[in-house]
Amino acid sequence: MKELAFFLKQNIINKQPFYFIFVSSVFIIVLGVINMHYEKCIIVEGRSDMMKLAPIFAEEVKIVCTNGTISEDALLELLEPYEECELYTFFDADQSGDKLRKLMKRIYSEATHLNVPKTYMEVANAPRKVLAQLLKEAKFSVHKEYLV
Length: 148
Hints:
Elements: H1 2-13, E1 18-23, E2 28-34, E3 40-44, H2 47-53, E4 61-65, H3 72-79, E5 86-91, H4 95-107, E6 112-115, H5 128-137
């Protein structure tokens, strides 16, 4: 039972969809799927980008990592659960980031593309204050302590 409680707590904290179940001594009843809804989804290249951006947001935003270069099919599969969201990209200012940006523009033309200043080249290298300003200009709610 402790394992179930831990599982539920972790999935609620991480806002992952999961099946909520009732366990009795005789049978298991699946009560339904709890699915967290996001209005905005931002796509980044890697975990370090996600870790850099996550504390800045003062609203619920789903951050999805491509983990570097990704195929068209893999990108479609990765973003399918978030197609109803407002889509944003925040890729590095390098060759890999340019490839992802082109792919996103072709598949999800409605996505808004945020650009890290070439001074920093990578999202993970940019100061949070710079990132917060760019996110605020894109109409994200950001924590005030990150604003210049």
